Amino acid sequence: MTAKYERTWEHRRAAGRSVSDEARTSYYGLPTIHKPHWKWLIIWYFFLGGISAASYVIATLADLLAKSHDARRIARAGRYLSLATLIPSPILLILDLGRPERFFHMLSILKLRSPMSVGTWGLTIFGGFCGLSALIQAAQDGLLAWARPLNRLLLALPRRAIGLVGSVFGFFVGGYTGVLLSATAVPLWARNFLLLGPLFLTSALSTATAAVTLVLALGRRVNRRALHVLERLDRLALAIELGLILAVRLNAGAVIGRPLRQGRLGALFRWGVLGAGICAPALTHVVGRLMRAPTRLVAILASSLVLIGGFLLRYVVVMAGRASADDPEAYFAFTRHTRPRA
Fold it and tell me: Rounded to a whole number, what is the distance in angstroms from the first to the last CA of the chain?
């Protein structure tokens, strides 16, 4: 056996305790299941893929629901941002798989009961809509005037209908990563199988709103009304995200949720995800209004904090899941509260 296990949660048998007593909390000091190998590549994929998916949805909503100049600015930024953050996603997936042909093998068959297979197809189809909408936007902005036939063809396409259908796949890509985690036997993820999908989708919406806000705030022409609209949307997404994060923490319980409370991951969860990512942006807006700070400066600072918190959320969820897989007591606690399937 070449694998070296990290016996993070090993407990030696104490004096006076029988083997059966020890078996309730330990598996000879070894992990009961193999933990997933997912690390930085997958964490970055979750982060960038979520921003891409939700940016596309935000751009579509802005294009469908409003006709103002502010809405057009939001839609333009959302479409370009969606494509820019989508491009690295398949590259990260291929690097994680180790060999490029494995990614293409997954496209040779569709397994509806496999989140990995359905996710690969969903990401590919969404990529088509994302690229097409970005090209239409480029044609509207006059960036493809040098290719007149292509420019005319893109301008003739039904932009809003394409955006509406593509948003369906955008919602899917934004939330399926959480479902992918919960479809494993990892205690922390499997225990929260109903919550991780909505949590990742909501976090994708908050980070994408922050990213669009940051792009607009860093631009030469800053429109305060557009920034205020995005601020309200981000505030709503962060409130729902906070409720889902606390629900995940409570549902995990004392044993399975131990990585979220203790050590370095526990500190990142409290101060990074909850503190910097959710509470600090709201506090920044309040303090900015009281001090009458420039809207642009407040938007840049608050959006940066939301993006940092969104990345840390994915880091903590992935790494805490790996830690719970190493913990035999967490796996036993999960299986005791899970009814066997008929």
Answer: 34
